[in-house]
Structures are given as C-alpha cells and as structure tokens.
What does this fold into?
Amino acid sequence: MTDRPRPCLAWTAMGSTMALVAAKLVLASGPSQVLRALGIALLLASPWLYISPFVFLGSKTRPESMPAASYMDTAVVADRGPYALVRHPQYLGYMILGVGLAMLLQRWWAGLLAAVSIVLYVALSLKEEHALRTRLGASYTAYARRVPRFNLFLGLVRWARERHNR
It folds into this structure.
C-alpha cells in the first residue's frame, strides 16, 4: 500500500537489531551474571511479541479480495492476542530483543546500538500510526486510546480491568 512508511526506516531499524544478533554470535557475553540473566529472560520473552503479527494479522484482518496481500495490509483493527496489550508488539519485541542482546554483550556500543534501534522503531511506529489513522479512521483512533503504544504493563492492567468489567 502507498500509505506505508518508507522501507528505509524499517530496514535501518531491523539492521541495527540484526547487528546486535551478529555481534552476539561472535563475541562472548559480558562478566555480569545479573545482566546476563536479565538478557536471557528478555531474549526468551521477545519472540512472543515479534512473531505475533504473522499469526494475528493477515487473512483475519484483510478483505477476501486481497488474498495475496502482505500480512501488514489490514482492513480492520487487529485487537486480539498481543494487539490487545500493545499497539506495536512486533516493534516492542525487537526492542526487547535488542536490549537483551546488549545486556548479554555488556559493551557500551551494544547499548548505544540498542538505543538507536529503539529510537528507529518508535519513529517507525509513529509513521505507521499516521498511516493507520488515515486508512482505518475512527476505529484505529479508538483502539489507540484504549491500548498503549509500547507499555506492556499498562496494557496488561487495562486488559485485565476490561476483562473484569465484562
């Protein structure tokens, strides 16, 4: 679709995360056991978020007239699974992955690279949200008011409160 953000931003964000993955493949972990344990916990948690769009988007959120379209070409707001908790689970998953890798590596440049990737994913999410508001209108605006962009803890609290009030 023409209203998607420029691919350059997405490729740069993903490239910075993949640079951390590559660095971890060839470099030893840092000395702090605590940071390593936290990094491993983040690495184990992140796939649930960055794999989810392949499951929760796609055929369920686009019209039958677009069967070959990308999983990102949604026609309705995706608000189930991780999308009930945060608006950008895939980007949040990549951010958590980057931070986890930086914690494992324990090098200043890894922390800087993780921070850069976070900034890029936030910028990408803002551009995407503008496009989604244009494409999906009031339904996306209402969803954005209900579900936080990246705050998973606030999303869990709101989700639990909503389920309790049903």
